[in-house]
Amino acid sequence: MQKNLVSDQTQLSELAQNQLLPAIWRSPDSVHFIGTLDRHTGKFKNTPVKSAAEAHSFALAYSAMGLDSYFACADYENPDSRVAINVIGAWAFWVDIDVGPDKAASGKGYETEEEAIAAQEEFCAKAGLPEPTFIVRSGSGIHSYWTLDKLLTRDQWQAYAAKLKALMKCIGLHADPSRTADIASVLRVPGTLNNKYAPAREVTMLSASDEHIDLTVMLDAIDAAVVKFGTVSETAATNEVPESVSSVPVPLPNDFGHEPPNMLSLTSALVTLPPDCDERTWKFHRIGPMAYEARYFPEMHDALYSLARRWSSGDLCGVPSVKWNTPGSNGYSGKQLFDHVWKRFLTDTYTGKRVTLGTIFFHAKEAGWVYVPDQTSGLGDDGEDLDV
Predict the structure, then answer these.
(1) Which range among 15-19, 23-27, 180-184 shows the weakest confidence by mean pLDDT?
(2) Angle 263-271/301-313 helices, nearest 10 degrees?
(3) DSSP state, 328?
(4) 299 Cβ contact partners less than 8 Å away, ≥ 6 residues apart
(5) DSSP-based helix, strand, coil % in the chain, nearest 5
(6) Coil/strand/helix, residue 206
(7) Residue 57 and residue 290: Cα distance in Å, rounded?
(8) In angstroms, how far is CA 245 from the centroid of its own chain?
(9) Whole-angstrom Cα distance, residue 200 to residue 54?
(10) What sign does the dihedral 69-373-274-378 (CA atoms) show?
């Protein structure tokens, strides 16, 4: 496999347009998306595109306007939504590794890019996995991709991505766990700017390969590593919650004309609210309002789901939730119950007055929260918490 380090930045645009996106988007009849984040308003927008070339052109134009630009890694069935349920499959696995003193201190990343890449190489060596075919400098970390020679369907991808996530945790690679196993992920487009910082930082290609990894080789390597290290993915929970219901939002009429939620504001409010609260508060005053908001704005379902899950687990606040991993009186942990509770609010037929996000903001203000418009605490580098 020929891998080329990118030292001449004049090659950047060509590599981004002619290699990375086409390597990830290889189904000509599928729908693909780019995303843009306006950090002043906190609004994220998904735009379906016809080709990698069009996506790259749009991303550069939006970046020049001061917006953060992303591309959705998977193939989609239709242009209606970028939610996971609309995904056909994916041609790659990916990982997001954060870099910076704060990330290293918290155990969620590495001090430098060099340390991150070295840790990734060590992980691949220990797990017996091929090295990534593409590595991108995101502006505050690295995004790596294992591009495959065949398409993995959504269910296949999710099963193996869960194993890959468990391996990273077991071996000790400090990668963003939500990104590794989220098939609806968006990641940054090389050649654009990361506006999370002032001055903005360039998103650049570090290495690129002109070949893809044999699918069988990759999956066999993951399976062998799972056996070697004895890891169990989250999808293999021993106590499965009954009554699984659809994860597709049942739309609610927006008859009071409110706008989509400001995800930056909502995230910063949730940071002040501990997830180890009583069950009623957790269900009806936290999960419920966010699930209902996903029904008013279905295109934001995955972003709200991801945010609600990160808050519930304690990842958002940086303090692990006890109840997330400890079975309660009903025999289930918060992790096992979360999807069941979320889906119930997503599909209920309740006709009375619904709890809104205003309850979250009210409780946050009682806890001393004051929203700062440019606050980005708790957000992932790639904006995934704002739209997945």
Answers:
(1) 15-19
(2) 10
(3) -
(4) 46, 81, 82, 83
(5) 45, 20, 40
(6) strand
(7) 34
(8) 23
(9) 24
(10) positive
Using the predicted structure, report yes or no on whether residue 353 has a pLDDT greater than 90: no
Band of pLDDT at residue 171, cut at 50, 70 and 90: very high
d(CA 136, CA 201): 13
CA nearest to 114, candidates 142, 77, 139, 93: 142
As assigned by CATH, the class of the 3-234 domain is alpha beta
C-alpha to C-alpha distance for 172 and 127, rounded to whole angstroms: 11
377: tokens are 């605490």
Beta bridge partners of 135: 144, 207
Amino acid at 10: T
User: Which amino acid is it at 74?
Assistant: A
Tokens matching residue 237: 């929970």
Domain ranges of the chain: 3-234, 237-386
pLDDT at 247: 61
Peptide bond into 261 cis (omega under 30): no
Rounded Cα distance, 85 and 302, in Å: 10
What kind and span of H or E run contains 290?
A: helix 288-296
Which pLDDT tens digit goes with each residue over 313-331?
988 887 889 999 888 777 7
Most confidently modeled of 52-56, 147-151, 249-253, 306-310? Answer: 147-151
Residue 306 token pair: 């991801």
Could you give the percent of the chain with pLDDT greater than 90?
57
Does pLDDT of 380 surpass 80?
no
What is the total residue count of the chain?
388
